[in-house]
């Protein structure tokens, strides 16, 4: 099964419209919505009209740009983003002094999502993948049983051993609590490395998520191409609704236990 998920739904009008175009042509199966952003209100209306499967794209990485952001949330978000974006290793460090700010931002975003969409998100991921930062994981603020995005999957020879070991450890921990796809890839990287055919092959026997940002011209062009349509021909497309807990999928693979096919 292949989940083709468009990130940044609601971040801006252009990003929402690009993803909607792909959904209308059957080139994506779901989207991850940002709340308290410029296009969040309109994007929620479009999601209901189009009946697209929508998850929450947790934002701990940038300022909220919407017109009705609570002052308390703005203050908390400012502290969180300043900490996380100071360097690429900040997300690996648990900051006990920001525990309340992280939780407040998470709770506010979840409540706003449910207000806009009238239901809980189908899944949770993060802007710049910050849903996997230490302050989120170690606080356990996300309830057990929620469907979540895992770390990126890598082919043999990609990334260092230490990098792969850390991601594998996190994925194994996540799999005991949340519903994860078996593999997760990025569209741009897969196109550049000419490995989309391998991704499609994995999706014939496993649950695979392919992340895309249709606002990026090169990604939109590929998603709408005949080449991509042909690639999807033999693959079952679905949403996170089909992803269960690891305990329900005894053959599910996690992190370093994954053996990607050559």
What does the model show?
The chain has 262 residues and is α/β, with parallel strands linked by helices. It has a single domain, classed as Glycoside hydrolase/deacetylase (TIM Barrel). 39% of the residues lie in helices and 11% in strands. The chain contains 10 helices and 6 strands. A 6-stranded parallel sheet has the order 4-3-2-1-6-5. Helix 1 (13-24) links the parallel strand 1 and strand 2. Helix 3 (71-84) crosses helix 4 (99-117).
Give the key terms.
globular; 262 residues; six-stranded parallel β-sheet; alpha/beta; TIM Barrel
List the helices and strands and how they pair.
Blueprint: E1 2-9, H1 13-24, E2 30-33, H2 40-50, E3 53-58, H3 71-84, H4 99-117, E4 124-126, H5 134-137, H6 161-175, E5 183-186, H7 187-192, H8 196-203, E6 208-212, H9 217-223, H10 226-232
Parallel strand pairs: 1-2, 1-6, 2-3, 3-4, 5-6
Whole-angstrom Rg: 18 Å
The figure for the number of domains is 1
Helix count?
10
CATH class: Alpha Beta
Q: How would you write the strand order of the largest sheet?
A: 4-3-2-1-6-5
> Total number of β-strand segments?
6
In the CATH scheme, what's the topology name? TIM Barrel
**Protein structure class:** alpha/beta
SSE ordering: EHEHEHHEHHEHHEHH
Identify the CATH architecture.
Alpha-Beta Barrel
